[in-house]
Specification:
This protein is mostly helical. It contains 17 helices and no strands. It has helices at 2-20, 24-43, 51-66, 70-74, 85-95, 102-127, 131-146, 150-166, 171-184, 194-201, 209-228, 230-239, 263-285, 290-302, 311-314, 321-330, 337-361. Helix 1 (2-20) runs antiparallel to helix 7, helix 6 runs antiparallel to helix 7 and helix 7 runs parallel beside helix 17 (337-361). The chain starts with a helix and ends in a 14-residue tail after the last helix.
C-alpha cells in the first residue's frame, strides 16, 4: 500500500520542483523522472495486480508475440468496427522489440501519463492550475483504476487532453486528439459530448444565468435519456459488429451485471460537488468557466446511478473525473498564500482517505497489496 503513496507524492514533489526551476533542461529532467516513477511502478508489477492484466493485458501481449504478422494477430480481435486498432498496433509493435509483457504494462501506463501531463500543461496555461497538485489528485483518483482498465484509461487521457483545446476554440486539434483516444478505446466517443456541453455552459454568452443553467439541465436530461436507452443501443451496435461482444457482459444478464449503488461513493462525489459549489461564484469572477466545471461535478455525482442501468455505463464517469480534479485545483486561486496551504491539505486529506477506502479497504480493481515481478 505505502509504495503507491510514496510514488504518488514523490512524483508530485518532482513536478513541484520542476515548476519552481527556471532552467528548461533541469525542468525537463524532473518532469521525465516524475512521469517515469508511476510508469515503472506499473511496469514491474505482478500479473495479479489489476483485474484485467490477466484478462487481456498479458494475454494480448503473448498472442501478439507468437503471431507471424500484425494481420494474423489483429484477426483475433477485429471482430467489430470499433476494435481499438491503435491499442493493438501498440501491443504488436512492442512485441517486436520486447519479449516480456511487463514492457507492455510499462507503456500502457507511460502513454496515458504523458498525455495527461500534456493536458495538465495546457490547463496550467489556460487556468493557471498547479500541475503538481493536479497530478497527485489524478494519481489518487485514477492511477489504481488504470492498473486494471488499461485501455480505457488511455482513452480517458486522450479525451482529457482533447478537452483542453475547446477552451481556446481549437476544434481541429480537439477532434484529432479525440479520434486518437477513440483508437485506443471505443468508449472515448463520450468525448464528443464535451463540445456541446461547453458551448451551452461557457461564460460570456449573452444569456441570463438562469437560462444557461436550464440549458445545462436540459443537456443532462438528454444525456440521461441516452444512458437510459444505452443497453438497447449497445445490443444493436454489437449485433451489427460495431462494438465488441464484450460490451454485452455489462448489460442485464451479463457477466458483470451490477445493480447496486455505493452510498459512500455518492457521498464522496457529493462532497466534491459541494466544495466546488461553495467556490463557484469566486471562480466565475476569475473567468475559469465555473458553470461548466460545476456541471462536471454534477455529472460525476449522478454517474454512479448509471449502474442501475448497466455496469458499463457507470464507467463513463472516468472521463469526467480528470476535469473534476482540474476544478479542485482551480479552487486554489480563490485563496491567498497562507490559506492556499490549508486548502491543499484539506483536498489532499479528503482524496487520500477516499483512495484508502476504495483501493485498500474495498479492494477495487485488485491493486492492493502491491506485488512486484521480483517477489
Amino acid at each position: 500500500m505505502l509504495i503507491y503513496l510514496v510514488v504518488f507524492f514523490g512524483s508530485a514533489l518532482l513536478f513541484w520542483l520542476a515548476e519552481k526551476t527556471k532552467k528548461k533542461y533541469t525542468r525537463n529532467i524532473l518532469v521525465t523522472i516524475a512521469i517515469l516513477l508511476p510508469a515503472i511502478l506499473a511496469g514491474v508489477r505482478d500479473s495479479s495486480v489489476g483485474t484485467d492484466v490477466m484478462v487481456y493485458g498479458k494475454k494480448n501481449y503473448e498472442v501478439a508475440l507468437s503471431a507471424s504478422s500484425f494481420k494474423v494477430y489483429f484477426s483475433n480481435y477485429a471482430t467489430s468496427f470499433m476494435s481499438e486498432p491503435l491499442y493493438h498496433i501498440l501491443v504488436y509493435g512492442l512485441t517486436r522489440i520486447f519479449d516480456d509483457y511487463h514492457w507492455g504494462l510499462f507503456f500502457y501506463q507511460l502513454i496515458p501519463l504523458v498525455v495527461i501531463y500534456l493536458g495538465a500543461k495546457r490547463y496550467q496555461k489556460i487556468f493557471g492550475i498547479k500541475i503538481w497538485l493536479f497530478m497527485v489528485l489524478y494519481y489518487l483518483t485514477l492511477y489504481n483504476v488504470s492498473l486494471n482498465l488499461m485501455r480505457q484509461l488511455i482513452g480517458v487521457a486522450f479525451v482529457f487532453w482533447a478537452t483542453s483545446f475547446l477552451f481556446e476554440k481549437r476544434y481541429k486539434e480537439y477532434f484529432i486528439v479525440l479520434v486518437a483516444g477513440f483508437g485506443f478505446h471505443s468508449s472515448a466517443i463520450i468525448g464528443f459530448a464535451f463540445l456541446p456541453m461547453l458551448m451551452l455552459l461557457q461564460e460570456g454568452r449573452k444569456i441570463t444565468f438562469t437560462k444557461q443553467c436550464l440549458q445545462g439541465v436540459s443537456f443532462l436530461g438528454i444525456l440521461f435519456v441516452v444512458l437510459s436507452v444505452g443497453s438497447k443501443v449497445i445490443e444493436f451496435l454489437v449485433a451489427n459488429n460495431i462494438l465488441r461482444k464484450n460490451y454485452l457482459n455489462y448489460l442485464s444478464g451479463g457477466s458483470f451485471e451490477s445493480y447496486t449503488v455505493s452510498g459512500l461513493t455518492v457521498l464522496i462525489y457529493f462532497i466534491y460537488f459541494m466544495l466546488y459549489s461553495f467556490h463557484s461564484k469566486l471562480l466565475s469572477k476569475r473567468k475559469i468557466q465555473s458553470l461548466f466545471f460545476l456541471f462536471i461535478s454534477l455529472i460525476v455525482l449522478i454517474a454512479p446511478f448509471g449502474q442501475l442501468i448497466s455496469t458499463y455505463l457507470s464507467r463513463i464517469v472516468y472521463y469526467f473525473i480528470p476535469l473534476q480534479m482540474v476544478s479542485m485545483a482551480n479552487i486554489l486561486s480563490c485563496y491567498r498564500k497562507d490559506s492556499k496551504k490549508v486548502w491543499i491539505v484539506l483536498i489532499l486529506l479528503i482524496t487520500v482517505i477516499v483512495w484508502y477506502i476504495n483501493y485498500v479497504l474495498r479492494g477495487y480493481n485488485e491493486t492492493v497489496p502491491y506485488i512486484s515481478m521480483f517477489s
